[in-house]
Amino acid sequence: MKNKKEIQFEQLYESHKDRIYRLCLGFVKDEDQSKDLFQEILIKIWKHLDGFRNESEISTWIYRIAYNTAITFVTKAKKINDKHTEIPSDLNLSDADYPCSKVDQQLNLLYKAINELPELDRIIATLLLEDSSYRVISEISGISENYVAVKVNRIKATLSKKLNPLIHGN
Prior knowledge:
Elements: H1 4-27, H2 31-48, H3 58-83, H4 102-115, H5 119-129, H6 134-141, H7 145-168
Helix pairs in contact: 1-2, 1-3, 1-5, 2-3, 3-6, 4-7, 5-7, 6-7
């Protein structure tokens, strides 16, 4: 028989797993790292679930944990990656080497472009893709709603500049 915490966690997992995983993809480039980050976030949510005080929406609380965990994870991963060598540069894999649809390719380009943004811009873009309101983005990122709007416009302009030549082949 499951206890109340287990039931609540399963419900939260089911309703937020896709959004959390996409947030992970916005922070790390590697799919395996995304899965590791995803698990770390779930563990933190589980550990701190009893401490949720209903001072905000549970989704805001979850994304705040996800955001903070992702920042820590990326910082640790960067330190580790700096110590390792890179894949040989003569190994040239192209998009044709990976089977996926055109939509998947465009989504991959979008996430790759988002991943190149500064940290705060990455989280804003990822939350925006999840249809989070400016209020929720403000609560998670710690900046005002007005500044979120300014950042969104700048992010859209930056992503357009990066993606238009890639998508349209210019």
